């Protein structure tokens, strides 16, 4: 699916005048996205679980724990009262950890407007059910696909909070709603693009975290750029095959929400998944790594459910499998590579034709034509 930019840029404040939106979750991404929306001209209220965080944002226009040194827009409002944040909000952006999403949705349900659109900014899957966040929303609330959206892309929070330019893909099964979301978040330094491939957009964000863990691990071992380039390239093939088998359009994975986010997360020392991988590659256990990380590293929780889904769909994900083996202490970090060994550790050549998985595009084209894969 081609991802299209919304056409106008520069007059965001006028376009969004009077648009009331809510952000649920005041960690680094929720707070940054609230700033983007406010700078785009929306009337934004952010909900923080802890009243002292809401108070700091509301009064000092700071969130010193998650975005040190960043001044937030004067017009940004904050509260820890769910009824207040949701009042009159047509777009509700969700930026909570994936494992608490279901409970957060249950908590907000009584205050939701019947016309509100729920937009996930979250890049993880629910461990107990293997569901993506849009599926958790549909499973928890009585809302149809035209009221469920996703925003995803190369979006390291601190860089965006410093107004360094980038973009993100706003996705919804209903193109008009995707356009509404993209319009709401298009600020001078953030451009919204649209597509209707919710599965691909959402899975891009989930799967790149797993490849970033692998990159962190080999970085921690001390390997150089060849290893990392091979893992990124083969990792993208793994991501694309898994996403297509899940119903995504492969072109989404080569866009901002796939390759774009993969590059940023694999390259940036600010990425928590990359950092967690690096600590593991340096020899810290998973528990020690969790203790050192003060923030959410979604990839660690997503490894097992993604592999479970891959098994069900008959997809091989050798890099993600190796990440799991390293996390479980069944493989030494130094042995992780881009699809180099069999399960018993014997190096194997790759004998398929071409750079990608044989049959991937044929299967996709056949599906679009309605024929069997
Ligand atoms: N930080 C980033 O650069 C980006 C993060 N994301 C995604 O956004 C999501 C949120 O991540 P961050 O804001 O970065 O995490 P964070 O670690 O900075 O903050 C997490 C927030 O969730 C809150 N929280 C913890 N338990 C909660 C509960 N039971 N109910 C409600 N809130 C709870 C914490 O108090 C904190 O405010 C993740 O899925 C992440 O993958 C997506 C794009 C960029
Ligand atoms: O999703 C992100 C960048 O797009 C943030 O990645 P981390 O969660 O690894 O920090």
Automatic annotation (TrEMBL):
EC main class here is oxidoreductase
Localization: Cytoplasm
Q: Name one GO biological process term.
A: phospholipid biosynthetic process
Which Pfam families does the record associate with it?
NAD_Gly3P_dh_C (PF07479), NAD_Gly3P_dh_N (PF01210)
Involved pathway(s): Membrane lipid metabolism; glycerophospholipid metabolism
- Tell me which domain of life the UniProt entry assigns to the organism this sequence originates from: Bacteria
Where do the annotations place NADPH binding? 28-29, 49-50, 66, 123, 157, 272, 296, 298
Domain Glycerol-3-phosphate dehydrogenase NAD-dependent N-terminal span(s) in chain numbering: 21-177
* InterPro entries linked to this entry: 6-PGluconate_DH-like_C_sf, 6PGD_dom2, G3P_DH_NAD-dep, G3P_DH_NAD-dep_C, G3P_DH_NAD-dep_N, NAD(P)-bd_dom_sf
One cellular component term (GO) for this entry is: cytosol
Region Disordered: what ranges?
A: 337-357
Which of this chain's residues are annotated to bind NAD(+)?
25-30, 157, 272
Family note = Belongs to the NAD-dependent glycerol-3-phosphate dehydrogenase family.
Q: What is this protein called?
A: Glycerol-3-phosphate dehydrogenase [NAD(P)+]
- Origin organism is Leucobacter chromiisoli
Q: List the gene name.
A: gpsA
């Amino acid at each position: 699916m081609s991802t299209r930019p919304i056409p106008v840029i520069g007059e965001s404040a006028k376009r969004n005048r009077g648009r009331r939106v809510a952000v649920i979750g005041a960690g680094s991404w929720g707070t940054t996205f609230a700033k983007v929306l406010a700078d785009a001209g929306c009337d934004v209220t952010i909900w923080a679980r802890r009243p002292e965080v809401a108070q700091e944002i509301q009064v000092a226009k700071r969130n010193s724990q998650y975005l040190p040194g960043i001044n937030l827009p004067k017009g940004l409002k904050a509260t820890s009262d769910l009824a207040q944040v949701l009042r009159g909000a047509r777009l509700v952006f969700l930026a909570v950890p994936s494992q608490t999403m279901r409970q957060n949705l249950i908590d907000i349900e009584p205050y939701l407007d019947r016309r509100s659109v729920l937009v996930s900014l979250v890049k993880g899957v629910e461990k107990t059910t293997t569901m993506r966040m849009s599926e958790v929303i549909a499973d928890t609330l009585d809302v149809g696909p035209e009221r469920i959206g996703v925003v995803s892309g190369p979006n390291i929070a601190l860089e965006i909070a410093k107004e360094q330019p980038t973009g993100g893909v706003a996705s919804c099964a209903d193109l008009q709603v995707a356009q509404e979301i993209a319009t709401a978040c298009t600020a001078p330094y953030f451009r919204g693009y649209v597509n209707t491939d919710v599965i691909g957009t959402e899975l891009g964000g989930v799967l790149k975290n797993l490849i970033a863990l692998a990159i962190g691990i080999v970085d921690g071992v001390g390997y150089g750029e060849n290893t990392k380039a091979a893992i990124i390239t083969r990792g993208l093939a793994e991501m694309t095959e898994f996403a297509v088998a899940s119903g995504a359009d492969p072109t989404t994975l080569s866009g901002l929400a796939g390759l774009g986010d993969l590059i940023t997360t694999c390259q940036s020392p600010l990425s928590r998944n990359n950092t967690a991988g690096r600590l593991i590659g340096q020899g810290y256990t998973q528990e020690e790594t969790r203790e050192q990380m003060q923030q959410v590293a979604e990839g660690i929780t997503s490894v097992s459910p993604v592999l479970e889904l891959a098994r069900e769909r008959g997809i091989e994900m050798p890099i993600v499998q190796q990440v799991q083996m390293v996390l479980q202490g069944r493989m030494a970090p130094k042995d992780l590579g881009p699809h180099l060994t069999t399960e018993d550790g014997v190096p194997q050549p790759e004998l398929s034709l071409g750079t990608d998985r044989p049959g991937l595009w044929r299967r996709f084209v056949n599906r679009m034509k309605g024929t069997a894969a």
